[in-house]
What we know:
The chain has five helices and no strands. It is mainly α.
Amino acid sequence: MAWNDGLIFALGALIGSFLNVCIVRIPREESILLPRSHCRHCDTPLPFYDLIPLLSYLWLKGRCRFCQKRISLEYFMVELMTALLAVWTISTFGLRVQGASYFVFVCSLIVITFIDIHYRIIPDTISIGGTILGFLLSFY
């Protein structure tokens, strides 16, 4: 793996962490920006060092630092899947508009898939937004 693949992997994992926020909050109609990330069990705000994609989950052994309850493996899997798909998408289509467009599409599919698994819905914010973005990008 070249150094640029490692950088893309790390950025993909970071984006995967944000996708986890979207997966949890969009179906509940909560803001994806505020409040800060917190434990879903004890509601304690998480410090930045507990939010490092992939590594924090491993370091904490899949448990909340404060209440010791299990953190779903799904968080780790979404981050890992997004990181791997980022490397694959960018290495296949390049670091240009086409590659970025496909990666945004892949990210929307990840969010849709996990929300659908949990709630059996596909949120309009993602499907309508994706349709508009896809239409606009078709001119490129």
